[in-house]
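One chain shown below:
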Amino acid sequence: MPNTRDPILHPIPILSLRPTQMTVGMREVKEKRKRWREHTSKKDQAELLGKHMIPVVLGPDKRNYVIDHHHLALALHDEGIKNILVTVVADLTMVDPDAFWGVLDNHRWVYPYDAKGERRHFRDIPKTVTQLKDDPFRSLAGELRRVGGYAKDTTPFSEFQWADFLRRKMSRKSVDDNFAKAIEKALALAKSKDAVYLPGWCGAASEDE
């Protein structure tokens, strides 16, 4: 199977990108929007776009299926950016359309789980990035990594694995009501041995745990 990672040097409309997941952390999207606005010059913005091309798989319908950076794509759309450069990770135009999502699943290029952490049918995956739903636990997992709760890991959808772990330990209301306090609790949970199986686990806080 081709694994080209060749950039497509003409812009792709963000709204034409097809998601391969159902949710994002909207808090994280807002943070990316804020960082984008800090790049005030057109040159800075162009350089940023050039460094953050969206990795996609080309499907049998010739559409570009996003396999990472959903948050960035949505943030840029919300900031009024119409087009973005993409990197084609794999060309699956030869795959039978009925088998396509199964192939993505086998390669761990799709995450068909909703904001409750429940697996859904592939047909329920949004058709555009603007239809992605908010999962506060994905925001919590993203912030947890940034504050050192676990290490960055190449495991596909590692942040979602952490989000599901936290979802089982904390209420959504606690995350919505006091995000800072939720991070404190998440840090303690991340250092526990209950989290030992998760990607990027950094070890227990003490030998007594």
User: Anything to note?
Assistant: Helices lie at 26-38, 42-51, 70-78, 100-106, 136-146, 158-169, 172-177, 179-190.
